């Protein structure tokens, strides 16, 4: 057997990580150092959401953005915002718009809401998961076709 530090053994694994796009490496670092609110929400999402179809992932790359939590099956993104988001609202609106263009619904919660009112956060998340989506594309001109006279 070849020792792991010699060439030939799992070289592809080391080079693959070195060649990873910068966004992926950034997401990996963010997963390793979550905020207190992200850590709390992650635990509750994994242990308290009763939906079997809600498999959330942390720090997920969607397009050019990294979402705090995302469920691809439900097309739902949860963002946990700290105080810096109070001054960058235009960027957050643009980011939410881009994620919605990808087909995701975006829920935003302040860190304080997650830390002090987790039940409300989970209730709103459950409502978003179980909500009936609007038809895609929605009907034009308000409904059914009329017969011509």
TrEMBL record:
One of its GO terms (molecular function) is endonuclease activity. It holds the Pfam family DUF559. The keyword Nuclease applies. Residues 129-149 are annotated as: Disordered. Coiled coil: none annotated. Residues 24-128 form the DUF559 domain. This is Endonuclease domain-containing protein.
């Amino acid at each position: 057997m070849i020792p792991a530090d010699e060439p030939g053994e799992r070289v592809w694994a080391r080079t693959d990580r070195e060649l990873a796009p910068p966004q992926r490496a950034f997401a990996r670092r963010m997963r390793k150092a979550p905020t207190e609110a992200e850590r709390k929400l992650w635990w509750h999402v994994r242990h308290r959401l009763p939906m079997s179809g809600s498999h959330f992932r942390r720090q997920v790359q969607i397009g050019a953005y990294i979402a705090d939590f995302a469920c691809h099956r439900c097309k739902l993104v949860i963002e946990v915002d700290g105080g810096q988001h109070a001054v960058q609202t235009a960027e957050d609106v643009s980011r939410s718009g881009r994620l919605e263009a990808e087909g995701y619904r975006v829920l935003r919660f302040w860190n304080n809401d997650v830390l002090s009112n987790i039940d409300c956060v989970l209730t709103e998340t459950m409502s978003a998961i179980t909500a009936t989506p609007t038809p895609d594309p929605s009907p034009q001109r308000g409904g059914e076709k009329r017969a011509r006279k």
